[in-house]
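ugh ok fine here u go
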Amino acid sequence: MGKVEGALREKESAGQATREIMISKYFFIVGSLSAFLAVALGAFAAHVLKDKLPGDLFAVWEVGVRYHMYHALALLAVAWALMQWPEANLAPAGWLFVAGTIIFPGSLYAMALSGSRWLGAITPAGGLCFLGGWIWLAWRIWKTL
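structure:
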């Protein structure tokens, strides 16, 4: 019975490692595409929106691009960390960064383009996702020490 249990645990561990590799690749792809989009949106603002948006809304757009890029890089960090500590269950941090990127910069982009300042009320939800992702990452890696 001991050998069978050991073999089952080994197979389960290999399955978990394969799952973590796939999730790592997914976050690397999403992080890379997100960074590409952040650069493109920053360039779009510099070359197209600079003369079209009021200064305060242009600044809102720039904050969106900045946090967009920070968290694109955070997704790359999560992809790397998943490979370093596959047992740490780091995927929720990546999903929080994805959600935060959609909500935080997304609401700022929409507010800057539309001028609808009420969209700023949505932005903190994205910030909470970012904060949750960072604390999840730190806590789960801390648990591996």
